[in-house]
Design a protein that fits this description.
2 copies of one chain form a homodimer.
Chain A (H helix, E strand, L loop, with lengths): L4 H22 L4 H18 L14 E4 L5 H10 L5 H4 L30 H15 L5 E6 L6 H12 L5 E7 L14 H10 L3 E6 L3 H14 L5 E6 L25 H6 L38 E3 H15 L3 E5 L3 H4 L2 H6 L4 E3 L4 H13 L3 E7 H4 L3 H9 L5 E5 L17 H6 L5 E3 L4 H13 L4 E4 L4 E3 L14 E4 L6 E5 L2 H15 L4 E5 L2 E3 L3 H10 L3 E9 L4 H9 L4 E7 L8 H7 L4 H9 L2
Parallel strand pairs in A: 1-2, 2-3, 3-5, 4-5, 7-8, 7-9, 9-10, 10-12, 11-12, 15-16, 15-18, 18-19
Antiparallel strand pairs in A: 6-13, 11-17, 14-16
Chain lengths: 609, 609
C-alpha cells in the first residue's frame, strides 16, 4: 500500500512544523534549511524507503544519509513521524542531556554516520551501497545533499566512483535552494546545470520542482523504470524556508532559529492539514548479513632475522584476517601494489574495493561499510591520509569501526621526497578519541597488529614502512593494545631508548654500538603509540636514572615523542628525536642521518646525558 | 617568432631522452609518466608560454604547474631545454645534495608550489590566475594533470570555481594515458568523457591526440580564438612510456626507472633528430606587482573590559592590515559572516575571494596567490581546515606564505555539536615545520596576531573563538612570536596555570575563585602556541614549585598541552586539561564544564597538587 500524495503532503507539513518548533525551543539551529527539503524528505521516508521503524538493525532496511547535516531537525522530525522518536524527544534538540543533537550523530541509533561537515554524506551512502552489493541485499541508500555542499570535491569523488561501480542502489537527492551560508550559491537555481554535472559523471539525473509532490513521486518511478545500472540523482529546485513567508528564499536566515515571539505567526501559515496523517511502514524482511563472534586467530610463520617489509606483512595479515572474519573488506587508493593490499584483492576480490586516487571518498565509503557491519581496512600512503583528515575526524565522531594503514611513513622512504613522506599521521590519529595507533617494527608484530585491529571496536591506525627490516619477534609473541616490548635489558642500563618501526631498528643498532663502548641501554619497542604503555615506560625510566631518548620517523610534534612526554610527565628527562624541518629527496640512510633519527644520533643523545 | 613544429618535435625528443637518463641515473623515478606528457610539455614550454628564462621573478611570466608531480624529471628536462638548468643539473635528480628533487619543490626557484600529492595543482594554478587578475597582468597559467589524479575531488573544486570566476587565463592540460599506479584508470582512454566533465563544470574543452604536434598547436590556437571567458581544458590522449617500446602503454612500469643495462636500447629508439634544436624565449615585459616593505603598523582602539569576540576582531584587523599592505588578500569558504572575513570583503572587494564550500581548493589557491607575492589570509571554521590538511601539509613543504584563521574552536561553540568544533587544529598545524600558531584570548591580542601574521614569512595559523570575551590588554601591548603574557602574579603563587583563548578567561576566573580561598596562582596567556615561550614557562614553573596546569579547548593530544610538556620536560609536573572524548551538543558553559576545561576544573587541578 503506497502512501497517497495527500498523506505525503500532510507529512511534509508536519515535518515543517516540528523543525520550526524544535529549533525555536533550542534557540538555535537551521530551520530554513529544513523547510526547503521537507517535501523531498516526506516522499523519501514515507513512500520510497522500505524499513522497519521498530528495528534499526534490520539488515535490509533502506538507508537515509542526511549529508546536509545542519538540517538535523528535519531528520529528527521524520523519525518522529514514523514512530521512531516522539515529538517530545525532538523538542529536546541540542540539549546537553539529549541524543537529539544539533547535527546528527550515532548517539541516535538510526544515524549511521555523523554528518555536519558538508560533502561527506554521498561517500557514506556509497559505502552502504557497496555493503548491499557485497551482501546481496536489495536495499537502497538515499542521500540528501544541499546545493552549496556540492562545491565540495568529495561529492564528485563519490559520484565518479559510484557510477564506475554501477551503484544503481544509490540515490543522491540535491536540495537546490540557491542559498549558502553567507550568500547565494554559485549555481543558484540552475538545476539543469547540476543535472548535467551528475550526468557527465555517469549518473541518471532528473530535475524536479522540489515542492511538487506529484513530480517528485513520478521522478522516483522514472528512476525505477529507466535508471538501469546508473546511480540516480534527483535535482530538486526548492526554496530555503519554504512554507513560511518570513523565511522563504530570504538571504540571512541560514542557521537562525525563528525567535519565540515570531513562531506563532510562522506556524499559523502551516496550520491547515493537507491530507490524512497516515504512514504504513513496508519493511523488507528475510535477509541477513555475515556475523563473526571471534575469536580471531591467525597463524604467523616468520623466522627471526628474515628480512621483510612491514608493508608487505600488512598484506599477508589482511588476507589471514579476511579468511577468518567474513566481514573484513579492504579499500585502497590506487596504491595497492605499494601497500600490499593487493594480496587481499587476489584472495577476496569481491571484498576489495579499488577506490582510485580519491582518499576522501575512500574514507567516507569505509564509514558507510562499517555502519553496515563490515570491518573495513583502508590503505594508502600515510601522507595521503591527511587528504581525508576531515573524514577521519567525522569517523571519530561516529565512533566508526574503520581501520587504517598508512604506508611509506617517514623520511626513510627516500628519494621520492617530502610530498610522499608520512610525517604527520600519528599526530593526526592521536587527536581521535579512543583511536588505537600501532607502529609495528617487524613483520610479526605487524601481522599481530592487523589481527588486533580487526578485533578492536573502533578506529585503529597502523603505520607501515617501505624498507625491509629484520624479523625480531617469535611467532607466538603477543602484542596487546597499550603494551610495549623491551628488547634490550640489563642491570646496568644507563638510558632508556624508545623507538618504533624503522627507529626501533636504529635503536638496536645504537645499542650494539654503545655496548662496544661499555654503555648499556634499555631498548623499548613502542609498537602501540596510542594508548601508550605509560606504566612500562615509567618503570623503565625509573630503572635508568630517569633518562629517556625517544626517536620517531615522524614530525617531532604530536607523535610518539609527545605521547612519551605525556606518559612520563616530570618523572623522566626525555630527549626527543624526530623530524623538525622540511625534508628532501635522498637515499633513505642518508635522510635518517640528516634528519636526526639514525643510530648515530641515538648514540649521541644517550651520551648527552 | 613562433617555434616550428619540427623544432617542437625535437624538443619533445630531447625531453624524453633526459627524463630517461636522469631517472636511470637516480635509480628511481617515473619515466613512463614523463614520456606520455613530453609532447604536450614541449608545445606548452616552447611555443605557448611567454617567459624570461633568465628571470624567475618577472611578474609577467606565464606560469606552469606540474600537478602530476611525479613527472618531475620532465619538468627538469624542460628547464634544461630552455637554459634554466643544465643537463648536468638534471642528472643530479634525487640526490641528497641536489635541489632537483624527486617531486618538484620550491628549492628550485622556478617551482612555486611543491607538488607530488595529486590533485592539488589546478588549485595552485587558479591562485596564480587570481593573482594575474588582481594585478592586471595578462599572464596565463598552464597546469599539467594526469588522468588518474582527476579522480581527486580537489580538481573539481578548482574546476567549478575557475569557471565561476571566468578564469580564462587558466589552462588545464590532462595527460590521459589510461594507466594509474596499480591498474588502468576508471576512464581509460575516454577523452570525450573527460572533456564532457570539464564542459559540465563550465570549461571550454578540446580533445587531441597528445602525440600529434599539429593537433596540439591547433588546439591552443582554437582556445585563443574561441575560449571566450571560460577556463580552457585540453584533454590529450597519450600513451604512458610513449617513444620507448618496452614501456609504451604497458602496465607495471609506474614509478620504475629503466635499469642501466636497458637504457641504451631505450635511447636507441629516440636517437634520430626530429628537427632543429632551437627555442627563442618570448618574455613579456613592463609589468609590476605591488610591493610592501613595511613596517606594518596598525592602530588598535579597544577598552579593557569591553566584550568582543576574537573572531570579530580578526575581521577588524584584517581590514587594517589590508589597508597598509596592498598584497594582503582574503579567502573564505562560505563562512565569512561567521569568521568576519566579510569585513575585508566590504573594504576591499577586489581582494576578497569567496571560495564557497570547498576548503581544499581554497588552501591550494592561496598557495598559488602566495607564489605570486600576495599575502593570503584563509578563513573558515577550524574544524573544516582539517578538510585541507594535505594542502596545508604541501603548503608547508612549499614554505608558502599563507595565513590561516580557524574560527569556532573547541567545545565552547556549543549547541552545533562536534561536527563544527575545532579540536584537532593545533595538532595539525604543530606538525608543519616553521609554522607559527597564535591563539589570542582577547580582541587586542587578536589584532596584534593578525599584524604579526601578515609580517611573518611563512605559514601562520590563528585560532579564533565564537563567544564574546572581555578585552584584557591595553592597545599598545606587544605580542611577539614566541612570547607569552603573565596576567596574574604574586610572590606566593603556588601553581602556574597556562591557558589560551577561552580557557585563559577560565583561568582568570579560577584565579579569582582561588584567591578567595587564599590560594594564589600564576596565570599565563600562551597566546603563541608555536613556538611556545619555553623560557617564560620554565621561569614561572621554577617560581611555582614546578607545578603547572595547562588547559585548552582542543584535544588533549597534540595541542597546547603537548607544547608545554615539550617546553618544560622534567622541570615541572604538568596537569593537562583538554578534551579527551567525543563531545556533544549543549550550551557552551555546560560543555566546558562537562569536558573538563572550566574554571571549576582548573581550581580542582590546582588543589590536586
Amino acid at each position: 500500500m503506497t502512501t497517497s500524495i495527500d498523506a505525503l503532503k500532510e507529512k511534509g507539513r508536519r515535518l515543517r512544523i516540528l523543525s520550526l518548533k524544535a529549533t525555536t525551543e533550542a534557540g538555535s539551529g537551521h530551520p530554513s534549511s529544513c523547510l526547503s527539503a521537507a517535501d523531498l524528505t516526506s516522499v523519501i521516508f514515507f513512500r520510497e524507503m522500505q524499513f522497519d521503524p521498530k528495528d534499526p538493525h534490520n539488515p535490509a532496511n533502506d538507508r537515509f544519509v542526511l549529508s546536509k547535516g545542519h538540517a538535523a531537525p528535519l531528520l529528527w522530525a521524520a523519525y518522529a513521524e514514523c514512530g521512531i522518536l516522539t515529538e517530545k524527544d525532538v523538542m529536546t534538540l541540542r540539549r546537553l542531556d539529549s541524543n537529539i543533537e544539533g547535527h546528527p550523530t550515532p548517539r541516535m541509533p538510526w544515524v549511521d554516520v555523523a554528518t555536519g561537515s558538508l560533502g561527506q554524506g554521498l561517500s557514506a551512502g556509497l559505502g552502504n551501497a557497496f555493503a548491499a552489493h557485497v551482501d546481496g541485499i536489495p536495499f537502497n541508500t538515499y542521500v540528501l545533499l544541499g546545493d552549496g555542499e556540492c562545491a565540495e570535491g568529495s561529492v564528485w569523488e563519490a559520484a565518479e566512483i559510484a557510477s564506475y561501480y554501477k551503484a544503481s542502489n544509490l540515490f543522491a537527492i540535491v536540495d537546490v535552494n540557491g542559498l549558502g551560508q553567507s550568500q547565494r550559491t554559485m549555481d543558484q537555481f540552475n538545476v539543469e546545470r547540476f543535472a548535467d554535472k551528475f550526468r557527465a559523471f555517469g549518473w541518471y539525473a532528473l530535475t524536479v520542482d522540489g515542492h511538487n509532490y506529484t513530480d517528485i513521486v513520478n521522478a522516483f518511478d522514472t528512476f525505477r523504470r529507466d535508471g538501469g545500472t546508473q546511480p540516480r540523482a534527483l535535482i530538486a529546485k526548492t526554496f530555503k524556508g519554504k512554507g513560511v513567508s518570513m523565511l522563504e528564499n530570504k538571504d540571512g536566515w541560514h542557521g537562525k532559529a525563528v525567535p519565540k515571539q515570531d513562531l506563532p505567526k510562522a506556524l499559523a501559515e502551516l496550520e491547515t492539514p493537507l491530507g490524512p496523517n497516515e504512514f504504513v511502514p513496508k519493511p523488507r524482511t528475510g535477509y541477513s548479513i555475515p556475523h563473526f563472534d571471534g575469536p580471531l586467530n591467525i597463524t604467523i610463520s616468520r623466522k627471526p632475522g628474515d628480512m621483510a617489509a612491514t608493508r608487505e606483512a600488512y598484506g599477508d595479515a589482511l588476507v589471514k584476517v579476511g579468511e577468518k572474519d567474513p566481514r573484513v573488506v579492504a579499500l585502497d587508493g590506487d596504491t595497492k601494489n605499494s601497500t600490499f593490499s593487493e594480496k587481499f584483492l587476489k584472495a577476496y576480490p569481491q571484498r576489495f574495493f579499488e577506490m582510485f586516487i580519491a582518499e576522501q571518498n575512500m574514507v567516507g565509503a569505509a564509514t558507510g561499510l562499517a555502519a553496515r557491519g563490515k570491518v573495513p581496512f583502508v590503505s594508502t600512503f600515510a601522507a595521503f591520509l591527511t587528504r581525508a583528515f576531515d573524514q577521519i575526524r567525522m569517523a571519530g565522531v561516529s565512533q566508526s569501526n574503520v581501520k587504517f594503514c598508512g604506508s611509506h611513513v617517514g623520511v626513510s622512504i627516500g628519494e621520492d621526497g617530502p610530498s610522499q613522506m608520512g610525517l604527520e599521521d600519528m599526530a593526526m590519529f592521536r587527536t581521535i578519541p579512543n583511536a588505537v595507533i600501532f607502529y609495528p617494527s617487524d613483520a610479526v608484530s605487524m601481522e599481530y597488529a592487523v589481527k588486533e585491529a580487526a578485533q578492536y571496536k573502533g578506529i585503529c591506525y597502523i603505520r607501515s614502512s617501505r624498507p625491509k627490516t629484520a624479523v625480531l619477534y617469535s611467532n607466538d609473541e603477543q602484542f596487546p593494545i597499550g603494551g610495549s616490548k623491551v628488547l634490550r635489558k640489563s642491570q646496568n642500563d644507563r638510558v632508556t631508548v624508545i623507538g618504533a618501526g624503522i627507529t626501533l631498528h636504529e635503536a638496536l643498532k645504537a645499542a650494539s654500538q654503545l655496548e662496544k663502548e661499555g654503555i648499556a641501554i634499555r631498548v623499548i619497542d613502542a609498537y602501540c603509540v596510542k594508548p601508550i604503555d605509560a606504566k612500562g615506560i615509567l618503570a623503565a625510566a625509573k630503572e635508568t636514572n630517569g633518562r629517556i631518548v625517544v626517536v620517531e620517523d615522524h614530525s617531532e610534534e604530536g607523535g610518539l615523542g609527545d605521547a612519551v612526554l605525556e606518559a612520563v610527565g616530570n618523572q623522566a628527562k626525555v630527549v626527543e628525536l624526530g623530524v623538525h624541518e622540511i625534508p628532501r629527496s635522498g637515499p633513505p640512510e642518508a635522510l635518517i642521518e640528516k634528519y636526526g633519527i639514525s643510530s648515530n644520533h641515538i648514540v649521541a643523545a644517550v651520551k648527552s646525558f
